[in-house]
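Can anyone check this?
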Amino acid sequence: MKFQVIEYCHQTAALEKRAITVDHLVETARVLDLSQEALFLAVRLLDLFLSKTKEIVKLEDLRVLASSSLLMAAKYIQAPPVHPPTFAMIARNVFTMQDIRETETKILNVMEFELGITNAYSFHREYTWVLKMNKETRDLSRYVLETSQLSMEFTTKRGSLVAAASILLALRMNENTEDWPPVLETYTGYKLEDVEPVARSLKEFMERAPELHPNQRAIFRKYTHGKRSAVAETFFSKP
């Protein structure tokens, strides 16, 4: 598939620092009050660039690549868009406006100027709307889905499948149901046997995430807020 991320083993430095980079994107998006869709698109652009480019991205170039991905996503998704000087200011002289412009050009060339790509959040938004989920269960599934971005295991899967699995896990944890709703089976095209293994992997990853990524806490902090039902604080108390 044209916009399917493959694991970029050749990008050693980027892979090693990927979770830190995603954590930085989450925090920057929060500071700038960017939408969830802009954040997920930015991570998708970052991963697609790293998996498709023949250029080996150096560690010192990773931050400007991530910030440029977020800026492009914000300009594509949001109105009014965030302006480049804001990103340069946040960077605190780590990179310049010229660095951003050059990196944006590289991303556009690798993406063949196509930015209207689907991501896990766009599927998740549709699925939760169809299901008419209550707010707490929806927030729980969003927390799972956003945390999954820290792992390449889920990044290389179809976004629609990971979105569906995050919803199944949230339904089981918050509403004590083992069923896969018929409306979602019809709408997503996935049966329970398709979604369940991924939901199980998501639960295992969520349980191990504090150990695997002890310093990447931006997503956890984000979901301790009351407006997101404080689901991060109650996640481990659920069955």
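Reply from J.R.: I decoded it. The domain at 12-111 is CATH 1.10.472.10 (Cyclin A; domain 1).
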